[in-house]
Design brief:
32% of the residues lie in helices and 21% in strands. By secondary structure, the protein is of the alpha/beta class. A hairpin with a 4-residue loop joins β19 and β20. Its EC number is 2.8.4.4.
Length: 452
């Protein structure tokens, strides 16, 4: 009788994921493919046979963080494969770390897998390899978020050419996923326990324009590959759906009724970037500020519960004191709920680098501090107005006696929290929805108790 061959240990891969939620989705796809091919995913450098680093390269600070992560992986492990946005600037990586095994750009999953196969061939297991691997209908792959929420990427790339941004040079022009493909993925995620879908892209408002809004079928109904139709489909799944990276185009008006009806979270993440028409033109951004304010007023009239979060750039080249004051006046008028801001930082390859009259660094920081002080008062007042209300919240974690949750106004990682004081005593668990009576607030978070 011939001897049965011993099974060999699975090859082990470590993984470092940096950057935005869109990069995180790329990481999930790579990790899922590694798992399908029999690789073991490990948490420690010294447990890994090879390490993959998914990088970010959007701004200088992100480039520095990515290079540091690559250097740490080389020092701790020695065998490193690099992918992601910074991979589009191979010479930067090679200059800092000539010993990396392979470099590829974002969404280039095939190149990553080829590099892993070369550095660490999959082990042959005669008991498994003879049986084709088949994904079940509910297979959702590896997730890097908690079980109860997930990022749903609906497109790649961007057709805009903002002067401060190099994303199109890294991720290319807009490529939308067909609507039925997105809805099927969302359905699988919900079956797998996801209670909140976070829709991400470079420009959610432009979804489907490259496909000429082609119709596809899902659950026996025809849907256009278009933002409104996508939202209608996602609303059928009965979970929270949150929209990110939305441009303030007129057709955004058409999704506000879905929010007012409770079918879509009343939340818009819109990167306005500035409020001076001249600076917006220099940025190559939509510049009709009065129409933007009118649209915000219209959205809130149609859906009073709407939360608007945004990001802004302070100290853009040529920004005068008067134009900065226009930005502060916009904050006062728009009364945005959540705001992030950055002092302008040159990005290699961006058109804005050639603009005249750069703002001195000290003045950028002074303006940033004034901006954040103004917005902090607005955010605190808007949160205080919610004291005494009932909020349906989604529990993220239990911390001692507290349950840490989020309201419809709070996206994970970037917005505030709802601290439920009696959450542990009430037996709450992560992924559970609960009605919370809001008892207090500060400039970031809400505090409450389980509504009896």
């Amino acid at each position: 009788m011939s001897a049965i061959p011993a099974r060999t240990a699975a090859p082990r891969v470590g993984f470092v994921s940096l950057g935005c939620p869109k990069a995180l989705v790329d990481s999930e796809r790579i990790l899922s493919q590694l798992k399908v091919e029999g690789y073991e995913l490990v948490q420690r450098y010294d447990d890994a046979d090879v390490v993959v680093v998914n990088t970010c390269g959007f701004i200088d600070a992100a480039v520095e963080e990515s290079l540091e992560a690559i250097g740490e992986a080389i020092a701790e492990n020695g065998k490193v494969i690099v992918t992601g946005c910074l991979g589009k600037r191979e010479e930067v990586i090679r200059q800092a770390h000539p010993g990396v095994l392979s470099i590829s750009g974002p969404q280039d999953y095939a190149s990553v897998m080829r590099a892993v196969h070369t550095a660490l061939p999959p082990r042959h297991d005669p008991f498994i390899d003879l049986v084709p691997r088949r994904a079940s209908e509910d297979e959702i792959g590896v997730k890097l978020t908690p079980r109860h929420y997930a990022y749903l990427k609906i497109s790649e790339g961007c057709n805009h050419r903002c002067s401060f941004c190099i994303i199109p040079s890294m991720r290319g022009d807009l490529v939308s996923r067909p609507v039925d493909e997105v809805l099927r993925e969302a359905e699988r995620l919900v079956r797998g326990g996801v209670r909140e879908l976070l829709v991400v892209s470079q420009d959610t408002s432009a979804y489907g324009v490259d496909l000429r809004y082609a119709e596809r079928e899902w659950r026996g109904r025809r849907y256009e590959t278009r933002m409104r139709a996508l939202c209608e489909g996602l609303a059928e799944l009965g979970v929270w759906t949150r929209l990110h990276y939305v441009y303030p185009y007129p057709h955004v008006d058409r999704i506000i009724p879905l929010m007012a009806e409770g079918r879509l979270l009343p939340y818009l993440d819109i990167p306005f970037q500035h409020a001076s028409p001249r600076i917006l033109r220099l940025m190559k951004r939509p510049g009709a500020v009065e129409r933007t304010l009118e649209r915000i007023r219209g959205w809130r009239a149609g859906c009073p519960e709407l939360t608007i979060r945004s990001t802004f750039i302070v100290g853009f080249p040529g920004e005068s004191e008067a134009e900065f004051e226009e930005l502060l006046a916009f904050l006062d008028e728009a009364q945005l709920d959540r705001v992030g801001a950055f002092a302008y930082s040159p990005v290699e390859g961006a058109g804005a680098n050639a603009l005249p009259d750069p703002v001195p660094e000290a003045l950028k920081q002074e303006r940033l501090a004034r901006f954040m002080e103004r917005q902090a008062a607005i955010s605190a007042a808007r949160l205080e107005a919610r004291v005494g209300s009932l909020q349906r919240c989604l529990v993220d974690a239990i911390d001692g006696e507290l349950a840490i949750a989020r309201s419809p106004a709070d996206a994970p990682e970037i917005d505030g929290l709802v601290q439920i004081q009696d959450g542990a005593a009430a037996g709450l668990q992560p992924g559970q929805f609960v009605e919370v009576r809001i008892m207090g607030s500060d400039e970031h978070d809400l505090y409450g108790e389980v509504a009896r």
